[in-house]
Amino acid sequence: MNAAPADQIRLLDVQALDTRLTQLAHKRKNLPEHEEIQSLEADLLQVRDLLVASRTEEGDTAREQTKAESDVDQVRQRAARDQKRLDSGQVTNPKDLENLQSEIASLARRQGDLEDVVLEVMERHEAATERAAELAQRVEAVEAKTEDAVARRDAALQEIDAEAGTVRGERESAAGSVPADLLKLYEKIREQQGGVGAARLFQRRCEGCQLELNITELNEVRQAPQDAVLRCENCRRVLVRTPESGL
């Protein structure tokens, strides 16, 4: 294949733009904010689950406390009624008096036990309430961090996409000035060679594979017509000669 030296030089421009697009795509995919957001979202999911569990416990202990306080109140009211009967003097039978006094004493013990239960439940309820409040604050903090990371990611993506759009426009313009057959060969090689289809021969070294040409290869390059499209013997990329080739 033959192509004017200027067209081959323009192919290097296309390659440089393709390389920049590859770099931008890699940068876009590997923004540190991606990993940061993923980590924050995992933390947020965990903290929200803990908050739900804590609020459930808070509600359960609140109901448990209400029930325990109601039990205490019922015992207290019954004990008050018995005490009122005892104080009224209406009960005169010794056996009935003994039973009434025994019941009042039993109710007092029962009330004490129930009040201990109320105190224990209150402590658990207060702990659950404090825990829920703490977790709610943690959720807000992680949400704020996540929003900040998302904003930074979106800003970075917007900047990358804007540059990529500019580079694609330049690439389209540069590729339009390269002969179709040379561009087709370049695209085929670029697909096979990890995104690099053309390389400069610089100081007797192929910048595609970074290997220096041996004396036989150099002589072949020197003897080739200026419009001949050369290929590197090692990596098979289009090898473009420039004034810095060291020939």
From TrEMBL:
Chain positions covered by the region annotation Disordered: 56-97
Domain C4-type zinc ribbon: residue ranges: 205-239
CT398-like coiled coil hairpin domain ranges (all copies): 14-194
Coiled coil: 97-152
Protein name: Uncharacterized protein
Source species: Streptomyces abyssalis
Bias (Basic and acidic residues) ranges: 56-87
Keyword entries, A-Z: Coiled coil
Entry keyword Coiled coil: yes
Pfam families the record matches: CT398_CC, Zn_ribbon_9
This protein's record includes keyword Coiled coil: yes
